[in-house]
Amino acid sequence: MTTGITLAIALAFICGGYVLGSLSFAVLVSRVMGLADPRTYGSNNPGATNVLRSGNKAAALITLLGDALKGAAAVWLASRFAPEFGLGPFTVAVTGLAAFVGHLYPVFFRFHGGKGVATLFGVLIALQPWLALFTATVWLVVAIFFRYSSLASITASALAPFFYALVYGFDGTLAVILAMSVLLVSRHQQNLANLMAGKERKIGAARAAVQTKAHGDGKHKDKSTRVA
């Protein structure tokens, strides 16, 4: 197999990962379950945390699982089939990165995506389960003690590359994990500003107000129809 063909196949895996990552479960699940578009209320972020602000826990859970599974699926498919074409772990890791980037900038939704927390976790599960466990533990501890989902996500993703380097050493996969960490933190710039200003929403806070936004438009339309 020539170098050109091998490169083309690697690009096919990477593009496939991006397309898979572009499936925004927050938007799709909200549409199917008759909820408002998560890009129009709360943090305007199409992710599980914002869907939870609608008050529909089932929709938030499905979104969380879907976003994580697409990241894991991209890596698993690459790890299963890429070696048959002479492609190694770096291609597998970059495919996971592509799925992550697809979540952040989905081609199907005008490149308006989420912040990537669940998708990053899914990618890590398939790449290095122990690293995923470490990241999830950090997230949980920070979330429990400080009640800020954004702070938990930033802390967990920032520590992930250091844990990987400490346990597995320096390689191409570390570069990919570092890239995902930097991208995730950059997507939380507004959250960082809110945290510093004391304006960041805590987990479970202000949910009632957002529920009104997520469901109120439909009720208002019903009343208007009856009046008319």
Q: How would you characterize the overall build of this protein?
A:
The chain is an all-alpha fold. The protein has one domain (3-227). Helix content is 74%, strand content 0%. The chain is built from 11 helices and no strands. Helix 1 runs antiparallel to helix 4 (57-81), helix 6 (117-127) packs antiparallel against helix 7 (129-146) and helix 7 packs antiparallel against helix 8 (149-168). The longest helix has 25 residues, at 57-81. It is globular and about 55 Å long. The chain starts with a helix and ends with a helix. The model is unreliable at 216-228 (pLDDT under 50).
Describe this structure in a few short sentences.
The protein is mainly alpha-helical and 228 residues long. It has 11 helices and no strands.
| Counted beta strands | 0
Q: What is the residue-mean pLDDT, rounded to a whole number?
A: 90
Determine the structural class based on helices, strands and strand pairing: mainly alpha
For the termini, the CA-CA separation is 71 Å
The outline comes out as: globular
User: What is the succession of H and E elements?
Assistant: HHHHHHHHHHH
Q: How large is the radius of gyration?
A: 19 Å
Beta-strand percentage?
under 5%
- Output the number of helix runs: 11
Q: Assembly type of the shown chains? A: single chain
The count of domains is 1
Query: Low-confidence parts, pLDDT < 50 over ≥5 residues?
Result: 216-228
